[in-house]
Design brief:
alpha/beta; Urease, subunit C, domain 1; eight-stranded mixed β-sheet; 16 helices; 22% strand; single chain; 16 strands; 423 residues; TIM Barrel
Length: 423
Amino acid sequence: MSASLVIRNIGQLLTMNPNSGGKGDGNADPVAGLGIIFDGAIAVEDEQILWAGKDDALSEAVSLNADTELIDAGGCAAMPGLIDCHTHLVFAGSRAHEFSRRISGATYEEILAAGGGIHSTVKATREASLEVLVAQARRRLQASLTCGVTTVEVKSGYGLDLDSEIKMLKAIAQTSRQHPIDLVPTFLGAHTLPMNLRSEREKYLDIIINEMLPAVAEQKLARFCDVFCERGAFSLEETRRVLEAGLQHGLKPKLHAEQLSRSGAIQLAVELGAVSVDHLENITTEDAQQLAASDTVAVLLPGATYFLGKTNFAPGRILADCGCALAVSSDFNPGSCMSQNLPLMLNMACIYSGIYPREALLGATRFAAQAIDSQNRIGSLMPGMQADILILNSPDYRNLVYHFGVPHTQMVIKRGKKVFPDN
């Protein structure tokens, strides 16, 4: 085996080997599921992992030639590139003024009545050109890259009419072509009711099901269909209708579920084979047991709970102890979590949702990959997987979760090429 790239002198190599356990088994072992190799090395051929193992076994396992690029990790830790599996990256406008109003005591309802909230983002996004949306998304992705993120799921949902939703999804596709980070598109036309159709629910549902979904599918602009199943947004039955229509067009289901109130969406998610259910602040132990018996990933979004000033964080410990596949994401968006700092979210998930650091790390790699149905390609550093690699600036991988709010990225390899720092 001949390698195009070799990384040596890795103090702690986290392979996230699926055979090393890790799916919410309640195991307090601090390294279960991480697949740690001490004093490790990685060999890459083109875009894929060729070999991963002990550094002193490299010469017997892999052939080097004059063209092989050699990187010395300097004893630092390395792991799969992080995966942000729930974001709203593409939008226009700012809601900084609303944040100030909210901190000063204004309620969300008061802000909404004044023309703010999600509708202000919808207005700005509708008015923005495709080129502006792409340029802004590219700048935001740089912040994600500096955090070690190599794949980002991105939702539409700030258009709420056919042309604007298509524009957002085209912006996601174009941005993905222009930036090293891979973007995974999700259609979220059922985010909320647009202002002009607030009293015409059936009409807007008809637009989603009979106009938006066929157009999205025909143009191959999304992989998933998501619905905000919530009081004030879409009911359980409306959610079913949209997701079943999405399935008919080849879009796998996702759900915003049990965030602000309890809807009973978990049973629907499991029934429809949803790839993930996200938020989960109001779930029960019975919900967690249903999820554990399914292939649906539970996605924690602690940054949204924090940013909204709430204290009812999703019960991550219950989910993990029941045996759920557990992911953690940023929920980056202008209204409820204006941050792309995924490592900070891992810290929050440990402190406020009670999951272990190793569960948080698995939640931003292996299980985050499963939450976007990409676990056979990314999320671990096994032979044949895509060579997305994060080298930390620390010999101890735990600092990514423990030492919060500061950058820990020394280098990012994407598809076998160094993309951070920029050559």
